[in-house]
User: Fold these one by one.
Assistant:
Number 1:
Amino acid sequence: MPGKVEPMTSIQRGSFRLFRFAGIDLFLHWSWFLVAAYEISDRGGSYSSLTWNALEYLALFLIVMLHEYGHALACRQVGGKADRIVLWPLGGVAYVRPPQRPGAVLWSIAAGPLVNVVLFPVLSVIEILSRSLGWAESMPNANGLLHAAWVINLVLLIFNLFPIYPLDGGQILRALLWFQIGPARSLMVATVISFVGVGGLFLFALWAHSVWFGVIAAFILINCWGGLRQAQALGRRAKLPRREGYACPSCKQAPLAGPFWVCGHCRKPFDTFQTQAVCPSCAARFTSTKCTDCGGLYPMSEWVVPAAADAAIIAP
């Protein structure tokens, strides 16, 4: 599942923290256990005991977790923020905030599927060795578990590379388009293409009589609609004037010119760059200014472009 470039959602609010590794908190949604119990009991005839079914589900857990850690660690590598991962029945979500540059976003998203690419030859070699050692006859349960892990990894890789937003393939497509047509139009094109893909998923769910694929298609459809609205908002933002002489230290975007910041004391909107981070209504002074593009917080002094003249407004 995708590395999600957005704030916390209801998915995390229904989750509990398992552990923290490499500065990243791993959460597990409560519904994971309900689906796990159903899947394990439903596949009871696959092994000689349910213990092996439980181990197969644990393999799914580990592969999805490694995939999401790929997103999070890659995001940090390019200077972004990633501090939580949520696993739930539809897969996993890594909450990543890479710098708003197409290359940084592309690497943060592509690193997840690359984990599965690396696992593919490793699991393939292990399965080939197990066959050569005669595990199919001497240890059929272990051999079946290895084959199941190989299939799980391959299916996750292929499914996530579908060019459907917000799957990794859809976000990779958006990042590649971003190089040529910008953030707003690239997201718009990716989501429009994704609606076609979601239609295909619904048709497949009907053909296969699969409730599970129908649920996945519905979840993706909701996110496609959210992506479309975000693209429209980005398009409107792109038409707004920007203030010259300043740039976000992270995403390098010039700040918007206008009252887009709200005072934390009197709740009045104001243009923080016009007043040098001082609220004109209550005179409150702020040590850091938030970027409206990437969400980063930085002192006003770090926003100033070196050797810049007096600030002016740039028309779009």
Number 2:
Amino acid sequence: MNAVLYYVIVFPLSKLPLWITYRFADFFYILLITVLPYRKKVIEQNLTRSFPDKTPKEIKKLRNRFYQHFADLLIEGIKNLGISEKELRKRFVIRNPELMQDLYAQEKSILLVSAHYMNWEWMITGQSLFFPHQAVGIGMPLSSGFWDKKINALRSRFGMHVIHAKIVKETFEKYGKESIPTATLVLGDQSPGDSLKSYWMSFLYQETAVLFGAEQLANTYDQAVVFYLPKRIKRGYYEVDLTLLTEEPKTLEWGDLTEQHVRLLEQRIQQEPQYWLWSHKRWKRTVPEDLTSLKEQQREKFNQYFRSSVK
């Protein structure tokens, strides 16, 4: 069934011009605001908690604007499977690629930190086209072996090296030995799996568990950290301004890197909230009882491992 769906519907759709497939998005949007309100309760709850000053009418308007974006996102995700290099370069533009070029000239590997905001799939597919670094993507296998194989093969068709989260160390060490600078894409806004191993901070008026992976990877492998979020120019066209957070992560205090990239995401969400993925259960982790004590323990452990002069 998966193969039939892919070869008969999904892949042919990916080869159609976007102006045609956006008509499907328009129809799907109408369904979302009428008879198929996908995760309506989750979306409204997330929006209400994140924007406590907005009225129910304003929350409903935001929800519908998200649904409109979500419909486009699904179509652009399908297009991503068949988009050509020429079209990808035209529709997804890096405004300051010299930042990455300068780091590459220094043979500096990068953590490219972003979020589930606007269109993240086109960066995954085009990363090797945009930057000189060896592109690396970290992910967990999809439950369907067929879709996992197909999607990863298409994501990597321009040079992205997609790896399992369990072989990050092996991969980084391999490229390090070969003196190949890497740029590893990390989406840092996912809900962590363990409350006690999370970095806790205020985000959108809520105590929030944040993945500490980007900060840990940067310190473990001494990688520079570059942040980006796409900006929508018009339907199907995006621009990216890269922001260097640090070239020397080991000079920063515990939590500084995480605070930086989460605050930048928060600012953008407050400016253009409809483009974040409100349908995911972002605040499903229970806040630990003694948060102050947990933070102190985490800081101590981090400093002992990464900042102690005696390893």
